[in-house]
Amino acid sequence: MFESINKPINCGGVLVHPGDVVVADGDGVIVVPWGKAEEIAKIARRIQEEDKKSRRRLYEDLGMPLDFTVEEKKKPE
After folding, report:
1. Domain encompassing residue 31
2. CA 35 and chain centroid, separation
3. Does the residue 41 lie in any domain?
4. What is residue 36's predicted lDDT score, i.e. its pLDDT?
5. pTM to 2 decimals?
6. Domains of the chain: total
7. CB proximity list for 7: less than 8 A, separation 6 or greater
8. Which of 43, 21, 16 is nearest to 34 (CA)?
């Protein structure tokens, strides 16, 4: 039964508004309010890059071959 469109909903105890960004992976789900999405994306990217650097150092210290999770992205020419 269709109830409404573009109205806030409660999903798993979280209030989700139209336009919110919903991201999920094997570990869970996060809902980012639309007005905070750009700020949160910048923070998440910074955390991801720092994590990649520290894991790369660990791989190198252990003599492990590098894989796609720690390699630097090649910039398009």
Report:
1. 9-62
2. 16
3. yes
4. 96
5. 0.67
6. 1
7. 18
8. 21
